[in-house]
Design brief:
The chain is an alpha/beta fold and 338 residues long. The chain has two domains: 215 residues, 3-Layer(aba) Sandwich (Rossmann fold), CATH 3.40.50; 63 residues, 2-Layer Sandwich (Alpha-Beta Plaits). The chain is built from twelve helices and 14 strands. The strands form three sheets. The protein has a six-stranded mixed sheet, sandwiched between helices. A hairpin with a 2-residue loop joins strand 9 and strand 10. Helix 11 packs across helix 12. The longest helix is centred in the middle third of the chain and has 16 residues. It is elongated. Bound molecules: adenosine-5'-triphosphate (ATP) and magnesium ion (MG). The site of adenosine-5'-triphosphate has 11 residues, from helix 1. Belongs to the ABC transporter superfamily. Drug exporter-1 (DrugE1) (TC 3.A.1.105) family. It is a peripheral membrane protein. This is ABC-type xenobiotic transporter. Its EC number is 7.6.2.2.
Length: 338
């Protein structure tokens, strides 16, 4: 089900965010609005500027231009208040290898000036929640990648932030650990926390994010729900299968589609993958009294979207939505009968 459009109060509001290193433009005027209690995923190829965005919004580095408000506070003028409202789990684990899991969490509690008893309580609770209790007294150096990622996120949660940045939270995790991390992330949002995550895993964005933005060459080239993004690129179609050639031919004539396979008795009807198109096809079959044996809706997946939207050299004056040519080029690579 598509997420509702962002109408509630926003946790993160960004306009015109820009950043260059030397003459390399990394962010070229980024606008974002992320409602409270939602998961936002920033996608983009290596070097697109995802970590840079996270670093700017978490007050670690300054932007060259643009404004941002987080939890109602101005990023620059109220940086202290912003810092108090956010938690950041960086791309590279902040865990201290020489300390045990427990000691890492205590350290975090000390840095946050939590009273000692409160710090101990939070640490014990987080160790339990992340299933790290057995490893509590072991040095982090002996942890697997997945345990380290979990401890890293647990450290971010010591301070009960309202907005959490997760820079590639599941990179290098096995499928089971990834799922555990997803469950943890979903649990956080259920508590009303807002999550800003970056990822290379399109399935991750598809599974978790209410809204997704794709960053490429300094600009957001697309923004929307996973379903909206998939509909942005061509390739959606409805496929009907019939029991005999007569029904197939009647349907092909009725829908004016030449994309049929006489052997498999299937007919493809292009569409946007949305419900109105599906309804029109069903109504058409009914009206023409044609029996179809099976109907499947095919939409491009986020991989198609990613490959289509990113890494293409931009032609001068090209608008971000004139994607047809690139999409067609990429589609030849894919099996469009999926
Ligand atoms: N401190 C820095 N000095 C100079 N260039 C930098 C610096 N930090 C980042 N860059 C450049 O900015 C660009 C964006 O980097 P960034 O780390 O934000 O990308 P990313 O989207 O997080 O990539 P990845 O998926 O590999 O993590 C890259 O070209 C990088 O080389
Ligand atoms: Mg990065």
């Amino acid at each position: 089900m598509p997420a509702p459009p962002p109408t509630g109060s926003s946790a993160i509001d960004v306009t015109g965010l820009s950043k260059s290193y030397g003459d390399k433009v990394v962010l070229d005027g980024i606008d974002l609005r992320i409602p409270e209690g939602t998961i936002f995923a920033l996608l983009g190829p290596n070097g697109a500027g995802k970590t840079t965005t996270v670093q700017i919004l978490s007050t670690l580095i300054p932007a060259d231009a643009g404004q941002a408000r987080l939890a109602g506070h101005d990023l620059v003028r109220e940086a202290e208040a912003v810092r108090a409202a956010i938690g950041v789990t960086g791309q590279f684990a902040a865990v201290d290898n020489l300390l045990t899991a427990e000691e890492n969490l205590f350290l975090m509690a000390d840095l946050l000036h939590l009273p000692r008893r409160e710090g101990r309580r939070r640490a014990a609770e987080l160790l339990r929640r992340f299933e790290l209790t057995d490893a509590a007294k072991k040095p982090a150096a002996t942890f697997s990648g997945g345990m380290r990622r979990k401890l890293d996120l647990a450290m971010t949660l010591v301070g009960t932030p309202r907005i959490i940045f997760l820079d590639e939270p599941t990179t290098g995790l096995d499928p089971r650990s990834r799922r555990t991390m997803w469950e943890i992330i979903r649990g956080l949002v259920a508590d009303g926390v807002t999550l800003f995550l970056t990822t290379q895993y399109l399935e991750e964005a598809d599974q978790l994010a209410d809204r997704i933005a794709v960053l490429d060459q300094g600009k957001l080239v697309a923004e929307g729900t996973a379903e909206e993004l998939k509909r942005l690129i061509p390739g959606s179609h409805i496929r009907l299968r019939f029991t005999d050639a007569h029904a197939l031919e009647s349907a092909a004539a009725f829908f004016g589609s030449t994309a049929y396979d006489a052997e498999a008795l299937t007919l493809q009807i292009p569409g946007d993958g949305g419900i109105p198109g599906l309804r029109a096809v069903l109504d058409g079959l009914e009206r023409a009294s044609i029996e179809a044996e099976a109907l499947t809706v095919h939409t491009p997946d986020l991989d198609d979207v990613f490959l289509t939207l990113t890494g293409q050299p931009k032609r001068p004056g090209e608008s971000p939505n004139s994607l047809e040519d690139n999409a067609q080029m990429d589609k030849t690579r894919k099996d469009n009968t999926r």
